[in-house]
């Protein structure tokens, strides 16, 4: 795994370029999902990196199967083929430039299908992941300090509205999604030779316990880089990244209002 000097950059300090990731087989490009500036930077970096494969956290393998070369040049057609409007993700116009930046790339979906996520209360994440669960560490309990930190993050993310017994469930879902993303990235690397760019949230791109840590566990010979994006009001995302940029803020109002108002 690449361990270059971590850079924290703002627009006034200049932006990272593809050269920062020259030695990486897999580059995780993090985002705050609803920040248009973050997606614009991902598209710029994808254009510069020219990956052989693009992996999306937002899409399942079944969705990706609908992508054809002809659709890459047709934003409305691609959105419809992916069923994006029903996906719950931010507007497709934020993501389309990323597709358009790598029209020759192979596309991979890394999302945990909703019907599988609903089984989390009845099945272990090891059972849900399948034969490689132990290899990916999904049969191991988390260290106490990491479990406590992750529970605190989940509680904060849900405005302290989740019952305590749901916090471990949310962590299990996050671990399973990290493992799905890592597995898809490794499959893409094996099939194409790389480089591979992964479009995902900062929480999955973090080096300490996100998808890169699963790649390092399963395939330590693979060189990985992680790019995180923060916002002016909140600073750099947590979790460690090889390169971090601070972009503009997004006005989200009061994100906890929905929990208070029912």
TrEMBL record:
What's the domain of life for this entry?
Answer: Bacteria
**Which residue numbers delimit the Haem-binding uptake Tiki superfamily ChaN domain?**
19-215
User: Know the name of this protein?
Assistant: Haem-binding uptake Tiki superfamily ChaN domain-containing protein
The region annotated as signal peptide is 1-18
> Which parts pass through the membrane?
none
* Protein transport found in the keyword field: no
What InterPro entries does the record tag this protein with?
A: Cofac_haem-bd_dom
Q: Which UniProt keywords apply?
A: Signal
